[in-house]
Structure formats: C-alpha cells, structure tokens
Amino acid sequence: MTYRMGHRLVSAAAGLVFAVSMLAGTGTAHAQDESPMAGKKVIFVPISMGISLTEGWARRMREHAEIGGYSFEVRDAAFNTGIMSELLAKAISDKPDVLVVHNPTVQLLARQIKQAEADGIKVLQINLQSNQPSTAFVGASWERIGREIAEDIVKECGAGSGKSGKVAIIPGQLTAADSVMMNEAAFKVFEQHKEIEVVSNQASDWEPEKARQITSTVLQQHPDLCAVFGHWDVHTMGAGNAVKDAGKSDDVLVYSTGGGDDVACKAVEEKIQHRIWSYDADGQGRDAGTLIDLMLQGASIEDGSMMIAQSPLKIIKSGEGFDPSLCWKM
Amino acid sequence: MSADSAAAPLTLPNQGSGRRNMLERVVAAATFLLIVAFAATIDGFATTGNLGIILINSASLTVLSCGMAVVIISRGLDLSLIAQMVAGATIFGMLISGGVAAPLALLAAYLSMVAIGALNAWLIAYVEIPSMLATLASSMFIVGLFRFAVLRGEYLLLLPKSDPTVAFFAGRLLPFLPVPVALMLGTLMATWFLLNRTVAGRIIYAMGDNFQAARLSGLSVRVTAIVVYVFAAFTAITAGLIMASASGAVDFRTVTNGTLLFEVILVVVLGGIPLRGGRGGLRNIIVGVALIAVLRNGMTLMNVTTQTQDMLKGLILLAAIITDNYLNPRDAETDTAGDL
What we know:
Number of helices of chain A: 10
Mean pLDDT of chain A: 88
Number of strands of chain A: 12
Low-confidence stretches of chain A: 1-6, 15-32
Strand content of chain A: 15-25%
Mean pLDDT of chain B: 87
Number of helices of chain B: 16
Strand order of the largest sheet of chain B: 1-4
CATH architecture of the largest domain in chain A: 3-Layer(aba) Sandwich
CATH superfamily of the largest domain in chain A: Response regulator
Largest sheet of chain A: 6 strands, parallel
Family (chain A): Belongs to the bacterial solute-binding protein 2 family.
GO molecular function (chain A): carbohydrate binding
CATH architecture of chain B: Orthogonal Bundle
Protein name (chain A): Sugar ABC transporter substrate-binding protein
Order of helices and strands of chain B: HHHHHHEHEEHHHHEHHHHH
Number of domains of chain B: 1
Distance between the termini of chain A: 65 Å
Oligomer: heterodimer
Radius of gyration of chain A: 26 Å
Signal peptide (chain A): 1-31
Low-confidence stretches of chain B: 1-17, 336-340
Helix content of chain A: 40-55%
Pfam family, one (chain A): Peripla_BP_4
Shape of chain A: elongated
Strand order of the largest sheet of chain A: 2-1-3-4-5-11
Distance between the termini of chain B: 37 Å
C-alpha cells in the first residue's frame, strides 16, 4: 500500500512536471508566434478622428495591435492639413515600423510618404491614395465607385428614362484624391451618353451646409434635375435635405458614397439620400489590421510595387429593397 | 480766434460723414450692377423663386452679421460668434434627440449662449482683456469643451428631420414666408430697435466713437458691453438653429475650418461699418449681405468652384478696404481712435 501510494505520488509528480513542461513549451511556442510583431510600433495619421469612418478603422486596427502585441498610436490632424504635415513629419522622426496615412489630397503628403519609405518605414495608405506609391494600400476603388454610380445615373436619368438627364455633382474638394478619381470615372461614362448634362460641379469643402446651399440654388435653376451625386454621405446630408425641403424627394435621386455606418442607413430609410455606395469602414478597418500584421512580419512585393487590398462595396438603396443590415454600428 | 476759423471745425463732421457713406454707396452700386449683369446673362437668376432661395440661403449670414455689426459699432469684435452658433445648435440637437421637449431644449440652448455672451462681456468690460483676444479664447474653449466633453470627439451631430421643431425651423411660417426669412426679418428689426430706440443703443455708438470719453462722462459702458455681447450670442444661437435645421447637421468644422466668420466680418466691413466702430446701422448690414448673397448665388448658378468663390470674396474684401482707406483717409480723429 505504502509502495503503491509512493508510486502514485511519483507518477502524479512526474505527470505534473510533464504537464508544466508542456504548458511552458506551449507558452514558448505562443511567445514565438508573437515575436515577429511584439514590441513593434504603428502610427496612424488620419485626416481627423471624430468621424465614424476613422473611428471605425482605428477600433479594428487597435484590436489587431492588442492581439499582435505591437503598439498602435493615433495622431489626430483634426481636419487641418497644415497640422497633418507636421504630425506626419513628427511620426517619421519617431521611426515606427508601419505608418498608416489617410491622404486628404493626392499631392499633399506625397513627398513625406516617399521620405518615410526611403527611411525604411513601411507606409500603408488607407482609403485615399496619394500620387506617391508606397508598400501597401487598403481601400475602395474610387474609379469603380465613380463609374458604377455614373452608370446607375445613366440608367435612371438617361435615354429612355423620360427624365431630363440633368445631374449635379458635389465633390468634397476638387483636389481630394477620391473626388478627383470619382469625377474622372463618372465623366468618362457621361461622355458616352450625351443626354446626360452635368449642370453643376461645385465642391462643398465636405460641409453639409455648403452642399445644401449649392443644391437648393441649382434646384431652383433646374427644377427638372434628375440626380445629385455627392462624393461623401456626410456632406450629402445637406444636399439631400435641400431636395427634401423642396418637396422633390420622389423626383431627384440623391447618390453618395461613404463608410456605411448606421447613420447612412437612417438617411436612406428617411429618403434624405436614395443610394449609397458603402465601402464598409468596419470591414476596411479589419483589412487594414490584417495588412499591418503582414507588413510587420515582412510582407511586401519583391519588385517594390504596392500591395493592394480593394474593399468590397455594398449598395444601400431606399425603397422596397432597403436592407438596414448592410450598415454597421460603432 | 476769428469767426471763420471757429466755424471751420464745425463743418468737418458733415464732410466726413458724406465721405464715410461712400463705401456703402459704392457697394450698393456694385450690387445693383451685379444684379443687372447676372439677370442678363444667367438663366433662372431673375426669378421670384431664386429671390426666395437668396433670402433663405442668406438668412443665417444676415442674423450673424446683425450680432457682429452691433459688437463692431461698440468698437469690439466677437470671434466666438460661430463657435456659439454651433455650440447652441448642438445643445438643442442633443436635447431633442434625447427626448427633451422642444421649448425646454430651446430655452436651454438660448440660456447657455446668453451665459457665454455674458462671460465674453465680463472678460472684456471688467477684466479688460481686448475683445479680440477674449473672444478668440472663448471660441477655442467652447469648441474644445463641446467636441470632447459633449460630443465625445465627434465633429458632427445629425438632427432628425422628422422632429417637428427641426421641421418647423426649416419650414414656412406662412405660405410666402419661410421661417428662416421670418427670423432674419425679426433679427433685423431687433437690431434696428436696439441701435436706434434704446439708451443702450446710444451708448453703443458713444463707446465706438470714443470709449474713454464715454466712460469718463459717466455712461454705463460695462453694462452696455453685457447687452452687446449677449445680443450677439442671441443672434448666434438663432443662426445656429436656422442652419442646423435646414442642413440637418451641426458641423464643428464650420468653426475650425470654415470661412463663415470671415464672411460675417466681410459683410459688416463691405456694408460700410468701420472696424474702429462708432458708425453704421441696419442699412449697412443689408447692403453688405446683399452683395455677398447675390455674388454667391450668381457664382453658384454659373457653376464657379467654391475655391474660386472664396478667392473672389477675398479680393472684394481687399478692394473694399483699399476703397475705404482712399475715401476715408486717416485724420486726427481716426488716428487717435486706434484700430483692432
């Protein structure tokens, strides 16, 4: 009995030592899994926090950072392009492993992106691309959004629709990356359909009130306007309200594009906007997080060309096909 | 002293007054010419419908300009006007979104902005900080407080257009009278009454003309400063309600990046109210707003880009200031009056 007890104790102790060593081994393996990214540094310089788009991205990227054990910092430019250049210069001097940049225009940060890459910092451009290529880009294809919205406008307002074919475009800024690309793609489509007439193409500086004033004035001059194409759902709220206040919600289609949070669905449900091409900011945030993980582990294309993760699009439509599940909530 | 030399100084103010009105006349003439040119060349400009749009779209600018004009006439400046406008609209928007009854939400929004106006006046009249610095600081404080403590980092607050109060402010009081235009007319009348029919109005002109003289002669300049900045706060929140209800959004970028404050000062200066104060009235505000409103409407109809519009407005302001300096050169009086 004594022998048996002793034997059992020895067996149990041996089992415990084995289990502990196994656990320790697993722990080492886990630490080895983390090692390529742990302790590394990522800095995100958005145009501004405080909007669902960037908050949604940051939330998902932060989740990836927590899992990967690397640091993730946000440097908020608060819609000030001057401050943004300074923040980016400071971020470059802090020598992060990956820099995530949200370009306000195609030109503004081009030189700094080039400098960062030359200094060995991998740059991930998010949603708005600069003229200067870098290691990676994650975001929507603005060419595709511009083209698809223009094609839909042609279908709704062009030959055979019985409508005037008059369209008002409200870009954010004429030099903003997305506005430039969407306008180029849209005009390419419209040029093939001479019945489409762009009666106004005036930037709103991304402000709802300016978009409202432009739309109400254009609607007065062209009461038979068929569609408004706003380049961002936020400022297009003003344009949509101008259409609604003029009692033309059923006659003028309001198109826009955006990150697709629940506010967008509410606007479509209330027919302030009719069709929104959503690039799903929540999904983009996760794509960005995955790309950052890969970049921190050394991923790049051998010939130096840019890795691209194009965001899938969701089309939120008013009317019978309205589906609120297409939007995400913060 | 001969009779001639004694009479000479007495005739100067009249001559000066004639010259001082020149800018207002030049701007009024320019507006008239612009209207004629736009009517002849732009389809859809000279219609009653477009006149309605011009009035609705310039309502909030006019209301803000009334507040700024009163402040400037008293030889002050309120750089926090747009911040107050957006902050007031935010309070209203958040309260009605939270289910608070509309009258209570309106009362809270107006009272909060009155408190900020009074704080501005206290800093300027009692602590004796220059108005430009005091209101610049309060503008920064308001934006910071509201963005981070109230909106928790958000820039935008969307107002539910389905709310009856929001719909009221964007709707019509009478079939031919939109609510924004009615509020604009009400504010213009209140401004006229304040400047021309109250004791405070007379003191406002005296403060602008010669602040030290007004103070030394026993006028209640400190209490009047409170009236001035609280009135400006009233105009700010009224403009905020008009703008937020129409566009369905309260947007803090109007303060941080927008050109609205610049436009308000532009209206006052173009109308012929000198930045050194002491002169001007309702007619000047109307002349200034008319030029900007007509120009903005015409350029939008002509599909001129927003950036080009800003550039042209800047050139017009510069031209107005140069014209003002030419027509109203500095003399012994204006030199001692000082500038901002």
